[in-house]
């Protein structure tokens, strides 16, 4: 066995047709988007722009929910969860990118599922992808409607603000190419980063948390190690996992890169910055707010700072929701027009299908946002139902597919093979346990009034 193969861990080895049984071959020799005369060129995204898109896909929602999860788990287990999940999410993102470079016809995670498991796996993976990003798009709509509530002192019914938020998200999502939407993500990332930084500084200046009783004794709720129930603990862990698990959305962006070989560079920059920000920001907010952290956490430093933070961050919240709608719509768009001349043509069919996909994804996200209007529970639901198999289980399978001979290789290769089997089992546990936990939490929240009824005018922005 060659030295190259012995040293390889992440990068898939090119398997021969004799060693790997290809269930159904997808386009494997070239990119989905062709550079041909007369066709719209989608492959125009530089790796720096790719990094910013990745940052915006990951950063906006997670940093707003981790402090609440830390209250459930405690500071130490919460920090360990942040580091552990982010490491796994980064590793699995690199696996997906390396697999995609070996099999360039894979535009989405569903195409990868088709390659390793056939049509049934492709359809299941595609449904999970849509469920995941429709749910996180819904969380983006919740974030924007919460911002509008804060800035207007709840001058309208929350459901009306959700409609306005959905229209804003859908408008930005309709930008057709990632190259064009990349410029918007610069403003979006900066706005959310500055907004979160304002809150982090703001909470350190308060004598007591803004949401806590302002007179008399009160229970602060800061724990180094928490003591949650299984349902609460697995929901909190799923929330933290989900904060960095949207890596399957990287693949459609990769298909529009000028040089897909620079994908790993963009991933490493993105996930490194995200991990550092998540850990530092969430620990500070939890340290100064305890159990009185808001969800989303931009409301944790009092009404004045809350308005300032939401005023600065509303662009970023909107762009996040738009990116999630965009990647889900782009998946459906490519599935419909993949083998058609309209895929890269400025035709009526092209634009009709694209706008139809955008409208459909936006409407479904709005309905979910109105039905489950608490930020944390939306993300936990997405993490357990969809992101666990997409971000952990399937990447483990992809690695095994391209390293099938490791099962009978050296002892180190057998260990690597076994670790990726464990990765698949971990995804199964998180899917089952996390779904159970978040369903229990949602039922309890409706029972005790933490969540108002679906499509209610009540403001749930401070619920956790």
UniProtKB/TrEMBL annotation:
InterPro entries: AA_transpt_TM (IPR013057). The keyword Transmembrane applies. The keyword Transmembrane helix applies. It comes from the Eukaryota. It is a multi-pass membrane protein. The chain crosses the membrane at residues 127-148, 160-176, 183-203, 230-254, 266-288, 308-327, 348-368, 374-400, 421-443. Pfam families: Aa_trans. PANTHER family: AMINO ACID PERMEASE, PUTATIVE-RELATED (PTHR22950:SF694), AMINO ACID TRANSPORTER (PTHR22950). Belongs to the amino acid/polyamine transporter 2 family. This is Amino acid transporter transmembrane domain-containing protein. The lineage of its organism: Eukaryota, Fungi, Dikarya, Ascomycota, Pezizomycotina.
């Amino acid at each position: 066995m060659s030295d190259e193969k012995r040293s390889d861990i992440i990068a898939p080895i090119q398997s021969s047709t004799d060693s790997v049984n290809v269930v159904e071959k997808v386009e494997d020799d070239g990119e989905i988007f062709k550079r041909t005369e007369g066709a719209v060129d989608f492959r125009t995204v530089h790796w720096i722009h790719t990094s910013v898109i990745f940052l915006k896909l990951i950063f906006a929602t997670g940093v707003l929910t981790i402090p609440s999860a830390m209250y459930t788990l405690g500071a130490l287990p919460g920090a360990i969860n942040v580091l552990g999940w982010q490491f796994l999410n980064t590793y699995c993102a690199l696996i997906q990118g390396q697999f995609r470079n070996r099999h360039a016809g894979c535009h989405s995670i569903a195409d990868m599922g088709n390659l390793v498991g056939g049509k049934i796996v492709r359809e299941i993976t595609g449904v999970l992808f849509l469920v995941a990003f429709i749910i996180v798009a819904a969380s983006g709509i919740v974030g924007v409607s919460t911002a509008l509530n804060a800035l207007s002192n709840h001058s309208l019914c929350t459901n009306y603000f959700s409609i306005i938020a959905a229209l804003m998200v859908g408008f930005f999502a309709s930008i057709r190419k990632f190259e064009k939407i990349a410029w918007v993500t610069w403003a979006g990332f900066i706005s959310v980063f500055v907004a979160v930084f304002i809150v982090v500084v703001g909470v350190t200046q308060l004598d007591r948390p803004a949401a806590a009783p302002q007179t008399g004794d009160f229970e602060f709720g800061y724990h180094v190690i928490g003591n949650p129930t299984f349902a609460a603990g697995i929901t909190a862990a799923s929330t933290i996992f989900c904060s960095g698990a949207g890596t399957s959305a990287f693949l459609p962006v990769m298909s529009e890169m000028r040089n897909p070989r620079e994908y790993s560079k963009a991933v490493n920059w993105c996930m490194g910055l995200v991990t550092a920000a998540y850990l530092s920001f969430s620990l500070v907010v939890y340290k100064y707010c305890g159990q009185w952290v808001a969800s989303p956490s931009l409301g944790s430093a009092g009404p004045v700072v809350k308005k300032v933070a939401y005023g600065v961050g509303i662009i970023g919240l909107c762009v996040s929701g738009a990116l999630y709608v965009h990647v889900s719509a782009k998946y459906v768009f490519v599935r419909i027009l993949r083998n058609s001349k309209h895929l890269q043509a400025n035709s009526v069919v092209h634009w009709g299908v694209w706008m139809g996909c955008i409208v459909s994804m936006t409407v479904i996200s709005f309905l979910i946002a109105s039905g489950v209007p608490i930020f944390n529970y939306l993300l936990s639901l997405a993490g357990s139902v969809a992101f666990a198999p997409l971000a952990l289980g399937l990447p483990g399978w992809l690695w095994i597919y391209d390293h099938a001979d490791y099962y009978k290789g050296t002892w180190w290769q057998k260990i690597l093979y076994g670790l990726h089997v464990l990765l698949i089992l971990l995804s199964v546990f998180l899917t089952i346990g996390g779904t159970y936990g978040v369903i229990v939490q949602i039922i309890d929240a409706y029972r005790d009034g933490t969540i108002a009824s679906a499509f209610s005018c009540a403001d749930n922005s401070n619920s956790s």
